[in-house]
Write a structure and sequence with these properties.
The chain is mainly alpha-helical and 199 residues long. The protein has a single domain, classed as Orthogonal Bundle (Hypothetical protein af1432), CATH 1.10.3210.10. Helix content is 64%, strand content 0%. The chain is globular.
Length: 199
Amino acid sequence: MASIPTPLQEALGRLPQGLQDHLLRTASIARELAQFLGVDGEKASLSALAHDLCRAEPPSALLHEARHRELAIHPVEEAVPLLLHGPVAAERLRDMGIHDPEVLDAVRWHSTAHPALTPVGKVVFLADKLDEGKHPQPHPLLQKVANLARRDVNTALLVYLQWQIQRLVESGSPLHPATLEAWNALLLAGGLAPDPSKH
């Protein structure tokens, strides 16, 4: 596993136990996926361990810190400040001496995805979503995504994003533009939207 800077170790140790457990499970999934996909396992593991560094922060505090750091804040993030926990975490990691752009982007975009996600970012995005421990009742689609992820990370992302977008639309929730842009980029690069029933 990648060397974890002491400030990050200390910050992770202050998180609620349930969140710490999720981070450890996500890091394990990320290492496994990285091995299957030929992705840098140390970067994937470090990113996965750090991705929810700010997940326990109150939404109002996330919004305040994002403004204080002069981050670009989209109106969707103003409406749903929890979406800022990735961008704020990436900035805190930078403060801790972690400057690898792949790690920072993986943490920054793990909630929404992004059209420019690197292989490390794709692994961390999927590993986070595939942690069964965070789902009281795991959806059957997640197993299909898990199986796909070991063969074709882009198709796995498309299948997951299609499901995520549909759920958000059906619930009347706003869609982050990075999610839509990631969907479009993957779709245009790979052809028609996948039919998960065929995988």
